[in-house]
Amino acid sequence: MLTNMVVFNTQVSQAAVELLDQMVDKFNAGSNGTIVLTSEGFGGDFMERALYQTLEAARRRVDRYAANGAVSATSLEQIKESSVKVAGGFGPVLFEPAQMTWIEKNEAEAIEVISRNLATGIIQDQLNTAIAALAAAIGNVAGATNDISATAGLSQGALNDTHALFGDRSMSLVGQIMNGTAYHKLIGQAITNDNTLFSSDSVTIVNILNKPVIVTDSPALYAAGTPNKLKVLSLTPGAAVVHDAGDMIVNIATTNGKERIESTMQADYTFGVGLKGYGWDEVNGGKSPTDAELATGTNWDQTATSIKDTAGVITIVDAAQ
Question: Do 173 and 194 form a contact (C-beta atoms < 8 A)?
């Protein structure tokens, strides 16, 4: 008997959401909170929040024996951080209902295969988008960038020099993101790793030098050119927050008109992206941005006065060295 695939809609959606929740919990724990995947979505195109600017400039030295002259006031000011909503899709995935009965497979197996790939695809999209935004925003700030790609490759010393950009706050850099090439370069320099904190099809989190390192071949961590460049992000807690809007829509449609009945599965979903110390430029970046717009540094405005209050720093090296 042919299976009516339309009844899969709710089942696939529920199974995918459950898998997403499980993967999110494991990822957040393993990444030391540098990139936070959350189910706290928001309505509309942007989510804005106001934060008070630091008052470090208000601190001053006083000479008790000098004339009691006037001093300049430091204004109590707020800065605005803006997250942007991103739209994504999965599918359509084409299959024939009779395939399942022909190979004597039940509906549960089909649901598991579709749900697992859907959940993995969404997680991968969210992570790649957050990394692209971080690399763009941080790389657009000279004081947060250690670009030695013209002369050197990746090393522990290069990473240490990058961390030094945070000065006395370098210990607040609690995690790093690099691709597989960068990771194995460090492995080749006799760094040992025996602690895997999280693993999925396209993401691994390991412990290097007592700091979790997210290893993923995200396109934003490699730049083709002369020379080809590797990028490593060193991040603070909450450097990027991905807001899963929880509005995933899954639809499976069955159609006639061919020799065999065909079904397609398609999903729509959204999520928001916000960066610590940066705000999405709502005018220049616009609504429902493309990948290219999200990866454009000038579309992320630094809102925090000091880079020490931002998402982190970036190391850019020659990939061939």
Answer: no
